[in-house]
Design brief:
Layout: E1 16-20, E2 30-38, E3 50-53, E4 58-65
Antiparallel strand pairs: 1-2, 1-4, 2-3, 3-4
């Protein structure tokens, strides 16, 4: 099952996700981690919900890891 990372309702604190950071948008390099904060206020975003990982890194959710 694929969970859509563009909808805020699908992202919960503590979930493991893959994000793309701003400097890596061209290369497409993904970073894995657990969600510490959800930064996007709107219910959805075309490029993915912006989150902060427990490591402190910020990026947009590309994949949710079950």
């Amino acid at each position: 099952m694929i969970i859509d990372g563009r909808k805020r309702q699908n992202i919960k604190i503590g979930m493991f996700v893959e994000i793309i950071q701003k400097p890596h948008q061209r290369s497409g390099e993904l970073t894995k981690g657990a969600v510490a904060k959800i930064l996007t206020k709107s219910i959805q975003h075309p490029y993915g919900i912006k989150v902060q990982l427990e490591s402190g890194l910020v990026g947009r959710v590309k994949n949710v890891i079950n």
